[in-house]
Amino acid sequence: MDGGARTPQLALEVSDLHKSYGAHQVLKGISLQAENRDVVAILGSSGSGKSTFLRCINLLETPTKGAVRVDGELIKMTESRGEPAPADHKQVERIRSKLAMVFQQFNLWQHLTIRENVTIAQVKVLGRSEEEAIAKAEAMMEKVGVADKRNHYPSQLSGGQQQRVAIARALAMDPEVMLFDEPTSALDPELVNEVLKVMRSLAEEGRTMLVVTHETGFAREAANKLLFLHQGLVEESGDPREAMANPQSERFRQFLTGNLK
């Protein structure tokens, strides 16, 4: 033991991540370090690689190159027919349960009630008993304000309510890191704030979150780190308030004023 200060364990570390589809390079080497309690806002115009980056982290897309570590554990990769592939599918399942994802389109099971939606993965993935899973589901539905909808089906809820159910489902898995992929972009404007309010409260609670978003107000108020992507590269990063007040990149300046095409 050297007695020196211990480096805090990173919740998530992404090193030199690339993703290509044939000759088309979507990600060209993105790195990110998120400590516990960090809220990282990922901004960028359409086609900048934001959603692909998030999906590569939990292997919904397989990175072409690079490394991802979750809570210090490296996701093992191999090759299959000359293409990168996960080496250990059991590891991927386990890591995914630590990286709960909230999608743009909610991705709720339409034939299940709200409570069943929040319960099912706890039982199947985490191995919780039905009783434990229901108790956790009730607590998380209460937290995001949809407990009174427990016996409804997704089609009976507004978009904002469905997204809050999706957040409850993610929270119920006790994730290390929460990944949000444009969680408000499919919502009617009047429903956006109810979802952002829940997300702000999670940030205040100290949840570790990566949020792909076009909501610059949320990034400024709730995040403590910012990544601005442009054409698959990090164009600007740093403290959101400082970066937005004084952009170093001309493209980020254009993005903030709505002039980046």
Description:
The chain has nine helices and twelve strands. Helix 3 (114-124) crosses helix 4 (130-144). The chain is an alpha/beta fold. The chain has a single domain, classed as 3-Layer(aba) Sandwich (Rossmann fold), CATH 3.40.50.300. The relative contact order is 0.17.
Main β-sheet, in a few words? 6 strands, mixed
CATH structural class: Alpha Beta
The best one-word shape is globular
Which ranges are low-confidence, i.e. pLDDT below 50, for 5 or more consecutive residues? 1-7
**Rg, Å, rounded:** 19 Å
Keywords:
6-stranded mixed sheet, alpha/beta, single chain, 9 helices, 261 residues, Rossmann fold, 36% helix
Compact summary:
The chain is α/β, with parallel strands linked by helices.
What is the topological layout?
Blueprint: E1 10-21, E2 24-35, E3 39-43, H1 50-57, E4 65-70, E5 73-74, E6 77-80, E7 83-86, H2 89-98, E8 99-102, H3 114-124, H4 130-144, H5 159-171, E9 177-181, H6 189-205, E10 209-212, H7 216-222, E11 225-230, E12 233-238, H8 240-245, H9 250-256
Parallel strand pairs: 3-10, 3-11, 8-9, 9-10
Antiparallel strand pairs: 1-2, 1-4, 4-5, 6-7, 11-12
